[in-house]
Specification:
Radius of gyration: 32 Å
Largest sheet: 4 strands, antiparallel
Mean pLDDT: 94
Helix content: 40-55%
Number of strands: 12
Structural class: alpha/beta
Length: 523
């Protein structure tokens, strides 16, 4: 059976590049009728952030990348955290020592550094001489008596080659002479990642190791360990990394200030910060970052849009197909179609996928996604009033593609605030109400609207057009002032739809209030 895995370290929140790697593992397993395993590689206790593990698991749950085994889906008493599997690693170390594939080394860091400097001085390749290797029990005891501490190193071959048949890159050749005697157990007794990941991949019967290309250089030592322990070799596929916008450098969460020089990246960040502020959250730069998946969850992106975009960030089915449901992804995905070169993260392209997926939703689903943002912003009650659904449905229909992410609904706060709480944007108000003639004309229009039996789109439009004709003016000479009066803004959804959504009482009161405000300013 095909079994793949994703093994994040809990040292930070989910990175876009890491999610793409997880997605490809998940898709490959699902396309083969196999299983996807989630494992936590927390061997480096100095770097782990305990608070980061929760968001990692929550992030995958939100994205819908489900795992067959892992935290919360344990099989019997199996642990999926490397920090809890040390006994297995110690057994492997002893097996490697007994078979002669590893040795005890007592060199100090100063002695190792001196050898490196001598190699550089002599112009030869740096490779440890094994001078302080404990070849016998007596030697080990002598070194210990000198107060030296021991580490366990791999006894790597120095001749020949390893040819790796990579499922993405084809045959990759490594010279054993280029490999060092890597440490697999530290002086404090803790085991390193390179040993732990091999032992765990075998224990969990991982058939395909699909991971980022930065691990390609680790592969020879891991295959050496696997072969020495008598494990069957897994298949390997090394994926190109996700690059920065318009660059071939690797995308990094630590370079936010650099990426903000890109207009599309900056626009995305700015929009996210605006939504966060409207919902009374203080964005934390360490996690509120478009390089991290949690950013998109917080501002209202759809998981389907993110996964669809990440699928095509280094993979393609053909030259034209872009939108994929999850089932279509599973049916189409193959490792053979993964590009070998890095693909640049494109914020505009991601937003384009979000817009397309959001417009695919029916109004009921859109409504369910938008309500929490209105509640967090204090614009509606929790639970919402029963009259909200038809009103919000009308707003969403009127807004159309202006609402691209769920958090965008907050840009239409004028429909949710009380008439007295409506704020007028200074520049539009000053521009549209500077003429007493316009103010008087708006008063006459208000009187015409007050006579309507029905305050729907058709009747409001007919009345306003009749008014414009009777006044001998163009519609633009009154409609802009009307919009500012009832919404406080210069732009928004259709004017006639706005009036219907607000309703007669609210619309008429807001017009009166705007007129009063204008005349008070003149007095």
């Amino acid at each position: 059976m095909v079994r793949t895995r994703f093994a994040p370290s809990p040292t930070g929140f989910l990175h876009i590049g890491g999610v793409r790697t997880a997605l490809y593992n998940w898709l490959y397993a699902r396309s083969c009728g196999g299983q996807f395993i989630l494992r936590i590689d927390d061997t480096d206790q100095t770097r782990n952030l305990e608070e980061a593990l929760g968001p990692i698991l929550e992030g995958f749950a939100w994205l819908g990348i489900d795992w067959d085994e892992g935290p919360g889906k344990e099989i019997e008493d199996t642990s999926y955290y490397q920090s809890q599997r040390d006994a297995y690693y110690q057994q492997a170390v002893e097996q490697l020592l007994n078979s002669g594939h590893a040795y005890r080394d007592f060199a100090t860091s100063e002695e190792i550094q001196a050898e490196r400097e001598m190699s550089r001085t002599e112009g030869r390749q740096t490779r440890y001489s094994r001078r302080w290797m404990g070849s016998t029990d007596a030697e080990c005891e002598r070194y210990r008596a000198e107060g030296r501490q021991e580490v366990i190193r791999l006894k790597m071959p120095s001749e020949g080659e390893l040819v790796l048949s990579d499922l993405v890159r084809g045959d990759v050749t490594f010279s054993w002479a280029d490999e060092q005697d890597h440490v697999i157990r530290r002086a404090d007794g803790s085991c390193l990642y390179h040993l732990a990941t091999v032992v765990d991949d075998h224990a969990f019967a991982i058939s395909h190791v699909i991971r980022a290309e930065e691990h390609l250089s680790n592969t020879p030592r891991q295959i050496f360990i696997s072969d020495a322990l008598g494990y069957p070799r897994a298949e390997y596929a090394h994926l190109p990394y996700v690059a920065e916008p318009a660059s071939k450098n690797k995308l990094s969460k630590r370079k936010l200030q650099k990426y903000l020089k890109d207009p599309e990246f900056a626009r995305l960040q700015t929009e996210g910060e605006w939504i966060a502020n409207q919902t009374h959250r203080s964005p934390d730069a360490d996690v509120f970052n478009p390089v991290l998946v949690d950013f998109y969850r917080q501002i209202g992106f759809l998981p389907d849009a993110i996964l669809n975009y990440l699928l095509l960030l280094g993979w393609s089915l053909d030259d034209s197909t872009e939108l994929f449901t999850r089932q279509e992804m599973i049916e189409a995905f193959t490792l053979q179609r993964v590009n070998k070169s890095p693909a640049s993260f494109d914020p505009a392209k991601l937003q384009s996928f979000q817009e397309k997926w959001f417009q695919r939703l029916d109004e009921k689903k859109k409504l369910a996604l938008c309500v929490p943002y209105l509640q967090q912003a204090g614009l509606i009650t929790s639970p919402p009033d029963c009259s909200l659904a038809p009103r919000l449905t009308a707003i969403l229909a009127a807004a159309g593609d202006r609402i691209k992410i769920a958090g965008d609904v907050l840009r239409f706060a004028e429909f949710f605030v009380s008439d007295e709480a409506l704020e007028y944007e200074k520049k539009p108000f000053a521009k549209r109400f500077r003429s007493a003639e316009v103010v008087d004309r708006l008063g006459r229009l208000r009187d015409c609207l007050a006579e309507l039996d029905s305050f729907d789109v058709a009747d409001c439009e007919a009345t306003i057009r009749e008014f414009v004709e009777s006044e001998g003016i163009k519609i633009g000479e009154i409609i802009h002032a009307l919009r500012v009066a009832v919404t406080g803004k210069a732009t928004g959804v259709g004017m006639f739809e706005t009036l219907e959504i607000l309703g007669r009482e609210s619309a008429l009161y807001r017009i009166e209030r705007a007129i009063r405000k204008s005349r008070e300013a003149e007095a």
